[in-house]
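Journal club prep — side note

Before the paper discussion, L.F. wants everyone to see what a predicted structure for a comparable chain looks like in token form. Sequence:
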Amino acid sequence: MGNKIKYGLKNVHYSVITNTAGVINYATPVAIPGAVNLVLNAKGDKTEFYADDGAYFVATLNQGYDGNLEVALIPDVFKKDVLGEIEDANGALFEDSEAKIKAIALMYEFKGDSKKTKHVNYNVSVARPSVQSNTRTNSITPETDTLAITASPAEDTGYVKGKIEEGQTGYDDFYSAVYLEDAVQNTIASDTVSFAKDAPADIAIDVTSTSVTNAVRNVKIDGIDVAGVNLTVDGVDVDIASSFVGTLDNGEHIILVEFNKGNAVTVTLTVAATA
């Protein structure tokens, strides 16, 4: 049975878009917690030509959507990544009058969707939100933040949006990378690895990709870029130098490997003093 209604906006993510010499790249998606409401109204001019006493030709130009995204509170990471706010050494944020707001891909789903469909809009521009608050009375009414958004066709493909349903290829990794047409899938041989400081060895991450032309774009440990001097990359396989891993604190760390095509992969690294 198909959907009768949709409700319960959830799992909203954004991915910052970069355009390098006409090549569009999407950063690893980041969650926006506290999603409240999403409204997207179709926009585009309708052309009608009448002949033979009737509508002889009718066409509608797809110019995407205009609307609003309402969230409980815009996270600081979004303000920095997308709105261009600047953070100083003390953690204070500053709104720069010359900041260039970045385009994003917007990803989301609805709790009431019986097919558990996941959606992506490929080229979304965002306007700065208004600031408002009310004094407290004898009851508390939570305030929300609303972003005015415009979803336009992607600059490279012309696609405005896409969707994927449960069970289809790419569904499980949907929020690890923006889904593209005939999406590439990257898988790892093992999602855990161990390192002992008394018996150091390079960390090897074995990756298989459905694209023969794929390449590693970035490697991070706990969100921090691993410098190239500490990396050996062979296709989509990665080795991290033991001299670098040995400087990490004992305990668990998350390795994130991002690729030019398809989903990122994560590996849990456990560092210990002894084997």
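L.F.'s comment for the group: Residues 153 and 160 are 4 Å apart (CA to CA). Keep this in mind when we get to the figures.
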